[in-house]
Amino acid sequence: SEIVDVTTLRNWLIRFAGDVEEFSALLTELDSAIGDADHGSNLARGMKAVVSVLADDSTPDSIGPILKQTGMALVSTVGGASGPLYGTFFLRMAASAGDCDALGPDSLAEAFRAGLEGVLTRGKASAGDKTMLDALIPAVETLESSLASGRPFDEAIRAGADAAEAGRDATTPMLARQGRASYLGERTVGHQDPGATSMALLFRAAANTMID
Ligand code: ADP
Ligand code: MG
Ligand code: MG
């Protein structure tokens, strides 16, 4: 069955944009402890640009092209570490999804997997480095394994969002090994990673919009 049509995809992105706006101060506060205090404002600016792209009548009404426009808007407006990484995530999702009207559970999971591989390639970080990957990897792996074991989509995407949040929480005791935070070394221990926090919002927004 097709669970993510164009309307659902747009709803997901708009919901994420709203969540980023709502939690922008928190994301920036987390980044002020271990970075340069701009993650919330960076991502809020980027998702605001995405929402205006979605509102533009000339934006194509097809899954891959919408994801591609999203990635391009993020790359061109966010900058820093997270712009290219979130941008790559959506651009790789776009390439995986292709020009279609809707995605079923397995093609959605494949698109998330492609996005994850893009972040790994582009950022050259690994699990446990205290980055967005520590929410993204468990989210994708849990979605995949839940679907593989025959669980219905709504349970699988919820389990993915739960895993992203657990992964986000698990960044607190980690020592940062990538990005700006890595310059602070031991001083990063005890602080939750901002990028893992926004990535958990992305998967919670997916669970909240892709289940009816
Ligand atoms: P900047 O660090 O350039 O100011 P942001 O503050 O917007 O960019 O984003 C910081 C977040 O980016 C970090 O919290 C971390 O999750 C993520 N990040 C940084 N470097 C990497 C990397 N190499 N791979 C994956 N994620 C990364
Ligand atoms: Mg920053
Ligand atoms: Mg910055």
TrEMBL record:
Residues 7-208 form the DhaL domain. PANTHER family: TRIOKINASE/FMN CYCLASE, TRIOKINASE_FMN CYCLASE. One of its GO terms (molecular function) is kinase activity. Transmembrane segments: none annotated. This is Dihydroxyacetone kinase subunit L. SMART domains: Dak2. The gene is dhaL. InterPro entries: DhaK_L_YcgS (IPR012737), DhaL_dom (IPR004007), DhaL_dom_sf (IPR036117), Dihydroxyacetone_Kinase (IPR050861). Keywords: Kinase, Transferase. The keyword Transferase applies. Coiled coil: none annotated.
